[in-house]
């Protein structure tokens, strides 16, 4: 079963605020093959913003607000970028070519 691209929290909203968390996860969907050479990058800030999902959920709880959280690593796709802009699909990190995005244009 494919992963959900986003999660929405909470379902019940009682606030005018709405949060987004574009770099909530370092998850790589199973459709992508991650090589051992790629794996160390998944624990870095290049892959996600550690703690951002927890902070977003805490803000939602405190304010009674809703949020959308991106569930794929920004090494797959950076949803905080324009679709046709640089960095939307990252093919390399600090000189390391990412195997899973190598052939994406």
Explain what the structure shows.
This protein has 105 residues and is α+β, with helices and mostly antiparallel strands. It contains one helix and five strands. It has one helix at residues 52-63, and strands at residues 6-9, 18-21, 66-70, 92-93, 96-97. The strands form two sheets. The chain has a three-stranded mixed beta sheet with strand order 1-3-2, with helices on one face. Strands 4-5 form a two-stranded antiparallel ribbon. Strand 4 and strand 5 (96-97) form a beta hairpin. The longest helix has 12 residues, at 52-63. The chain is elongated and about 45 Å long. It starts with 5 loop residues before the first strand and ends in an 8-residue tail after the last strand. The relative contact order is 0.27. The mean pLDDT is 87.
| Number of β-strand runs | 5
Side-by-side strand order of the widest sheet: 1-3-2
Structural class: alpha+beta
Strand content is 15-25%
Shape: elongated
| Average pLDDT rating | 87
Number of helices: 1
In short:
By secondary structure, the protein is an alpha+beta fold.
């Amino acid at each position: 079963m494919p992963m959900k691209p986003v999660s929405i929290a909470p379902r019940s909203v009682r606030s005018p605020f709405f949060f987004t968390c574009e770099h909530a996860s370092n998850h790589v969907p199973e459709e992508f093959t991650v090589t051992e050479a790629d794996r160390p990058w998944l624990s870095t800030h290049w892959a996600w913003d550690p703690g951002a999902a927890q902070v977003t959920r805490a803000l939602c709880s405190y304010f009674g607000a809703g949020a959308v959280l991106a569930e794929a690593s920004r090494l797959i796709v950076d949803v905080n970028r324009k679709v046709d802009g640089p960095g939307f699909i990252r093919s390399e990190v600090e000189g390391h070519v990412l195997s899973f995005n190598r052939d994406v244009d």
